[in-house]
Amino acid sequence: MRFGTLDFTAAADSAELLAAPTAAAIEAADAADAADVLVAAIDPGLADTAAFCANYEISMADGANCVIVQARRGERTWYAACLVRGSDRADVNGVVRRHLDARKLSFASMDDAVALTGMEYGGITPLGLPADWAILVDESVAAHERLIIGSGIRGSKLLVTGAFLASLPNVEVLAIAQAG
User: Fold this and answer.
1) Which residues form the domain of 172?
2) Which residues, listed in sequence order, are joined to residue 66 by a DSSP beta bridge?
3) What are 13-25's pLDDT values in tens digits?
4) Strands, E assignment, 16-174
5) φ, ψ at 164 (rounded to 5°)
6) pLDDT of 123-147, one tens digit each?
């Protein structure tokens, strides 16, 4: 399948283009769902949203970014993921903080995000995140027919449906986006 200027193939047949946790999540998914997850190799230097979209002729609204947040309340610290369209920002200090019932919320450090997910920074995806993490997916992402997300590495991107993302374990769909 072609999207923008990229040619996508079945991700289940291209484990070399996926981070290990991502490949494991696709392998564990229902066969029909896994068949809908496609992957394309990209230039790793163009993995960041703006550069990627400009180079591969894809609208920022047709991509989704996965950001890792660190939540704290008292002595307890935990992590969650937020998925919003590339044209939007997650309302981390409002909606996300309240939804997670955190006293303080911040973006996870790059080192923590990489170590905890087993994925490359700039390629983190909701597929294969730790099983005890909440994954907050913006309602506009869940409603999108097809969109680009990370693959766990900077050298490729996944093409998925919003419905597939909404069906992942630990996903909660809610309005977390602010216009970018």
Assistant:
1) 2-179
2) 83
3) 999 999 999 999 9
4) 38-41, 64-73, 76-85, 88-90, 104-107, 134-138, 147-150, 156-160, 171-174
5) -60, -45
6) 999 999 999 999 999 999 999 999 9
Measured distance between the N- and C-terminal CA atoms of the chain, rounded to whole angstroms: 29
pLDDT at 180 over 80: no
| Backbone torsions φ then ψ of 66, nearest 5 degrees | -110, 115
Rounded CA Rg of the chain: 15
| CATH code for position 125 | 3.90.960.10
Domain count, the chain: 1
Per-residue confidence (pLDDT) for residue 174, from 0 to 100: 96
Closest alpha carbon to 95 in 178, 176, 179: 176
pTM: 0.95
Tokens of 102: 């955190």
Structure tokens that stand for 127 in this block: 């597929």
- Which two structure tokens, joined as six digits, stand for 180? 């970018």
**Type of residue at 127:** L
- Work out the mean pLDDT of the chain and round it to a whole number: 95
Structure tokens at 159: 């093409």
| Predicted local confidence at residue 54, as pLDDT | 94
Containing 97, the helix (H) or strand (E) segment is helix 97-99
For 26-50, write each residue's pLDDT tens digit: 999 888 888 889 999 999 999 998 9
Q: Are strands 104-107 and 76-85 parallel, antiparallel or unpaired?
A: unpaired
Report residue 154 as tokens: 């900077």
